[in-house]
Every structure is written in C-alpha cells, then in structure tokens.
Amino acid sequence: MKTEVKKIDTNKRELSVELNDNTVKDKFEDVFKAIAKEAKVPGFRPGHAPRDVLEKHYASAAHQEVLKELIPDIYHKAVEKEGLDTIELPEIFDVKLDRNSLSFKAKVEVRPQIKIDNYKGLKVRYKKISVSSDEIKRNIDSLKESKKIDSLDHHFARRLGFPDLEALEQAVERQIFLQKENEQRQKIENQIVEDITKGLDFKVPESLVSRQLQDLLRQSKLDLALKGMPRENIDSQEKTLLEALKPQASKQVKVYLVLAEIAKKENIALDDHMPHNVIELLLREADWQQET
After folding, report:
1. Which of 151, 139, 229, 227 minimizes the C-alpha distance to 175?
2. I need a surface site. Which of 12, 185, 263, 283 has the fewest CB within 10 A?
C-alpha cells in the first residue's frame, strides 16, 4: 500500500492511498462467492450460475460492495501508517477501482498540536466561607412569607419537618454554606480553565466547532420553546443565534482539546468523565492561597 500526505492547512490533510496487491482481487472473489449463494439468475439454481453470468448481472453490485468493505479498512490502515491523529470522519473522493487495484483520496481534519507543560502548581485564591446570622434570618423570613405564617417558632419548624427552630436554623445555615461553597468552587474551576488556556494559540478544528455549535443551537431553541416562543419565531432567529453562539462553541472546543492534551499526558481516559477528572487533578496539584 502506497500512501502520501499533503498539508492543506494547519489542521487539514489530504491523504492519498494506492493499493495494488492481491487484496483487491481477493475481495472481488469473496464478494462474488457471496453473491453466487443468493443470486437469482433465470435458468440457474442459486449457487450454480456461472461466473461470467454473475459478472454480467451483478458487476455493479459487486463493485459497490468491494468499495464498501475495502475503503474503511484501508483508510484506517493508511491513517495508522502515516500517524495521523484524525478527529472526524474523512471526506473520500477520487475513488478508482478495478479488479486488481484501488486508489482514493481522503480529506481529513487532525487534532492540533498543543504544547502545554505548566499546568501544575497553578495559583488558586479562595475565601474562607462563613454564614452570618443575618443571612440565616433573611432565608427563614423568606420561608415564613412563602408559607404565610405570622411567627417563627417551634411549631413553624415542625411544620417544615424539623424538631425545633434551632434545627431549622442549622439546616438553613448548612444550605447557605453549601451554596456559597458551590459558587466558589465553580468560580475557581473557571479560573483554572482560563489560566491553562490563556496564551495557548492554536487553530481550533472547524468540524468540532460546527458540531458543538449545532448542540448549542438545539439547546437554545429548546430553551426558547420552553419559554413559550412560537416555533416560527425560533426558526427565524436561527442565523442570529448561530452568530451569537459561535464564539462560545469555539471556546468550549478549545478548552476540551487542552484538557484532552493534559489527560493524555496524565494517562487519564478520554471518556465523558475526562473534563471533570482533569480539573480535579489540576485542583489537587494547585497552589491554594487563602484571601485575607
């Protein structure tokens, strides 16, 4: 198998493949044997039609079947041979097939090269979380108003499932603390992501941005529908939505690729949990500094 790679731009390559060994000939033989078992040719029982008759009636079908079976396998072998880190399905073109040879070209998009080394020991600034008595009171007052109750007492607490007012206050304090903790955690995670992507200049693959953009568009349309906007109004805003969402899609893909690069360095599986696992690693390795 002969292969050649031409660089189209930063992330796109044109892969040329030529196959001139017995692989093609053998595949035609296998395909015609399979056709012969089921072919319905007038005057012959299934499996007994002569090869020349099969050639006459099923040449086109055999041609398509050979392409269907050979191209994916040969393409993957060529990609592996050339060491291409592809990220999307290829665009196959210029396909030529005869009984002894196969050639085709594939336009592919490859993962950009990202050099990232200083991702451990990032500075993380955090605040000690506390909950004031005023915050607890405001939250309980909100509960009282939503229940239309005049006084705060043990009876009120028991109606909400707590043994007494003190237990209710402790539960409210814990809820406020967790909310603040989650908000701070999200802020820190966002800052970590900003820090590791800042200064990394690489072209984000168009195909990944396009796919992410469509996902964001579907979600935006769903959100608008849930808010009661008529379908025709939503559809009419599609172009505007695409323009507005494209920077977000590009940023999300960039972040994912950077996290994936760290995952490869750290032997973290590239599955659905990868972004979370990488961020957990970055947080463990970070330099935590408490704000005064």
Report:
1. 139
2. 185
Q: Which two tokens stand for residue 40?
A: 């319905």
Say which residue the tokens 């802020």 belong to: 187
pLDDT at 57 over 90: no
Rounded Cα distance, 64 and 272, in Å: 36
- Do 85 and 54 fall within a single domain? yes
- Quick check: 188 and 246 in contact, CB under 8 A? no
**159-195 per-position pLDDT tens digit:** 889 999 899 999 999 999 999 999 999 999 999 999 9
Same domain, 227 and 142: yes
Cβ–Cβ < 8 Å for 71, 27: no
Q: Are residues 139 and 270 in the same domain?
A: yes
Residue 63 CB-density burial (10 A; 0-12 exposed, 13-18 middle, 19+ buried): middle
Q: What is the pTM of this model?
A: 0.77
Answer whether residue 114 is part of any domain.
Answer: no
Domain boundary among 55, 74, 109: 109
- Pairing status of strand 12-19 against strand 2-7: antiparallel
